[in-house]
């Protein structure tokens, strides 16, 4: 079995004020975040999407997963 090593970048708390929604603000924020993550060497971007955000993230190429995380700190 071959194991791939990923450098994960986590995106937390994306929020756009309601009066600015549907104007491409979240898309622009996400694209800039993905550029930054690539620049610092990340090979994967991980986020936890709200029901409202799932359509946006899917349109940007994100795939749903059942990732589970345990913090040991």
UniProtKB/TrEMBL annotation:
Name of the protein described by the UniProt record: N-acetyltransferase domain-containing protein
SUPFAM superfamilies for the chain: Acyl-CoA N-acyltransferases (Nat) (SSF55729)
One Pfam family matching this protein: Acetyltransf_1
Residue stretches making up the N-acetyltransferase domain: 1-73
GO molecular-function term, one example from the UniProt record: acyltransferase activity, transferring groups other than amino-acyl groups
Coiled coil: none
